Amino acid sequence: TELTPLKDIYEDYFLIGNAVSMAELEGQRLDLLRHHHNLVTAENAMKPEYAYNANREFDFSDQERLVNRIQEEGFELHGHVLVWHQQSPEWLHTEDGQLLSRDEALENMYTHIEETVLHYGDAVIAWEVVNEAMNDNPRDPEMWRAMLRRSDWFDAIGDDYLELAYLKTREVLDENGWEDVKLYYNDYNDDNQSKASAIYYMVKELNENYAEEHPGELLIDGIGMQGHYNSGTNVDFVRLSIERFRELGVEIGITELDITAANTGELTEEEEKNQAVLYAQLFSLYKEHADIISRVTFWGLNDATSWRAERNPLLFDRDLLAKEAYYAVANPEEYL
Ligand code: G3I
């Protein structure tokens, strides 16, 4: 019996996405991907380190093969990611290990953004411009600049590196007539209220600054809530974060959803049920906020290939068969 496609169930609400590598674009994995999803994110291939060859020259050949397949299959593509402190080439230090000057680091950041944005053009519907820039549990969310993660980007450029990254991305898109590509800020622990609050103040200030010169326009169009949850997650906190972000007038993308079980190894019946209930609570919440939630993307197709495989966080099992969690997403009301 064919399962009802999730993308059909949620057609009037939001796009349904998944994270892919080449392995998801062939055979049985492609069948499952196509059946339920209309959007994809490259799980790794579009991160900065994969855009360069060993001589630090731009080389998008691997991505091109992936993106061509994605387009042939008719999926929308969500861009992950331009500026991150992980999975990036070693371009912030000199050969003897010194951190670059602000000007040198900025030039590297701008070059990366410009080349990458020009390369993809409007083949992406959105770019996560900056990923995971905020500390966990910031003490004083309103002082968001002081709460930023002390990454090499921060150390080399300063607390304005985010704003400059968004301005550069916006400029390259505008110059080329790609105004429809949305700019996202993306982060995890999005249910943590002090972190959500710091992100709120950051997006608020950067968008207010931008609006002074561009009345009525947004610099940051959307907030990506990664959604890497676990069996102890309280969906009421996810709700509070969504309600908070709503005040900013931005859209929300659920960008990397998965929910781990309490234990490693095969799921017990109870664990599978608990996981399903959490998925149902989330989708019921997402439906309530569907006017601002643009997309919900799962971070992997099935448990076997998840980055947290040992805790079985996804909708399909090792044999690609639907778990209780699939039925909960398909019919949340029955699981509440
Ligand atoms: O491609 C190499 C391969 O050549 C090498 O032999 C192998 C040996 O370790 O590593 C392979 O690279 C791995 C890569 O995934 C591709 O499979 C890296 O080691 C591994 O660290 C990397 O993990 C990814 C992780 O980001 C890195 O931070 C996960 O697949 C990916 O799911 C995960 O995704 C992140 C999001 O980008 C941001 N938010 C959190 C999320 C989960 O950590």
From TrEMBL:
- Residue intervals of the GH10 domain: 1-332
UniProt keyword list? Carbohydrate metabolism, Glycosidase, Hydrolase, Membrane, Polysaccharide degradation, Repeat, Signal, Transmembrane, Transmembrane helix, Xylan degradation
Range within the parent protein: 187 to 522 of 768
Record-annotated active site: 256 (nucleophile)
Instruction: Indicate yes or no for the key word Transmembrane.
Output: yes
Query: Know the name of this protein?
Result: Beta-xylanase
User: In which family does this protein belong, per the annotation?
Assistant: Belongs to the glycosyl hydrolase 10 (cellulase F) family.
One example of a Gene Ontology biological process annotation: xylan catabolic process
* Source organism: Alkalibacterium olivapovliticus
* GO function term, MF aspect, one: carbohydrate binding
